[in-house]
Amino acid sequence: MTVMKKSLAAFMAFLFVLSCMSVCAFADDTTALKSITMVSRSDSAIAFAIDGFDTAADTVKVVCIKESEKGAVNWANQEAATTNPVVFTTSSVSTSSEYIIYARKTMSGDPTKYSYASSAAFKFYPDAPVILEATDSQIKVKAVDGCEYAIKDMNTNTLSAYQNSPTFTALTPGGKYQVYVRFAASATNTNIGASAAVASEIITTRLASPDKPAKPVLVSYTMDTIVVKEVEGVEFTIDGKNWQTDGTFEDLKKNTAYTIIARGVFNPETQLEGEHSASLIVKTASRNVYEAEIDDCEIALSSSEIKFEDTFTITATGDASTSTEILNGDTRYIPVSYEIFSANGTSVYEDDFYVNNKKNTSHTHVTETLDARLSVGEYELKVYFSVEQYYDGEWQEINTDEAEVDFEIYKPSTTDQILTYLNVILKLIIKGFSTIFNLVMGFFS
Fold it and tell me: Which residue of 16, 156, 237, 381 is 20 to 30 Å from 109, comparing CA positions?
């Protein structure tokens, strides 16, 4: 078995040497085909010269096949070439395939021996342009060695001159264009002209980008929400990724700083993104917004029953947060004035609350002392409150509200008056005895 393997190996080596000798013999044969090179090109045909092909003496078969199909040549069906160079037209070839030219001729009159030559792989046309970028005023295609480019304005149906640069500028926003690419003419061989051109799909330049919007305006914030003023044609982001036209951002973390920016609304399919606005930095609250209530305000009189011609005191207290942190959206109630109505609803007295001779601006309690010079009867005291909201560094009045309390002014009866007078006389007598006692004690001391 081993002897047979050695014999087979020796036989194969003999065949390899024999084939090499045959090839070498072809290489030394001055009549063998040696190479195929391009000698001229136009936009409709390419000519290849076959070195070693004598059109008067040789019968040479030439074929142009796709590079991907090389080796599958049926030479029996190929017609003989009659000219050198051999010309191939571009009317029946693919725009995207590489081709190779193959040639074969019989050697020394022996139909069993042939000389072969082939060209380098080539294309009749370049591939269609690959669009790298399309802005509002520029289109850029992928550069390909040996190619040149032109652009057609589909609106005016005009084609530009060809250029080496694959970038076209100064285009009209929203315009429609087609880019053309072709193999450029040879710089050293005047016979190698430009190839036919291949066009891209129609490209629409982007519309101009939206204008830069103003910095977002804060409306309010809470522990978990930030609200900015909505603007038509503007969208906002709080994370740099997700954009919304709604000015409300929810589900945030309390006591946390957030950055909000704005940009013009745009269609990414047809328009460029605009410049971003300046940043608005907002820190969420550490507590909820305080909503003051009229029910948490207080009004009171020194007594609900006041003797005629006695003095009495009005006390009013507003409502506000006790926190030292004031939030946008906080509200408060400020007692600003009061009015007294008789039983039939007639206003009989009104005035503002004053603190240090100035109208009250605090929610804390204020007092007014009045003489009961009203007629005997039933009355209603109304206290008016200014409802204020804190926004952007200042309190602003947004509403008014009121609360009321009833009271009565009465005139004492005769018995009550006599008792009152006796009480006064008794106090004077006691005071007089006390004075005399103190004088006597002082005399003997």
Answer: 16
Count Cβ atoms below 10 Å from residue 328 Cβ, excluding itself.
Answer: 19
Asked whether the beta carbons of 323 and 360 are under 8 A apart, the reply is: no
344 three-class SS: coil
Using DSSP's 3-state secondary structure scheme, residue 125 falls into: coil
- Assess contact for 112 and 99: CB atoms under 8 A: no
List pLDDT tens digits, range 108-163: 778 889 999 999 999 999 999 999 999 999 999 999 999 999 999 999 999 999 99
Query: 51 CB contacts (<8 Å, ≥6 apart)?
Result: 33, 34, 35, 36, 37, 117
- Token digits of residue 307: 């003797």
Cis peptide before 85 (omega within 30 of 0): yes
User: 171 near 154, Cβ under 8 Å?
Assistant: no
Q: Is the pTM of this model over 0.85?
A: no
Question: Which residue is listed with tokens 């291949």?
Answer: 198
Q: How far apart are CA 35 and CA 27, in angstroms?
A: 12
Q: What distance in Å separates the CA atoms of residue 125 and residue 366, rounded to the nearest whole number?
A: 94
Residues 445, 433: Cα–Cα separation, whole Å: 18
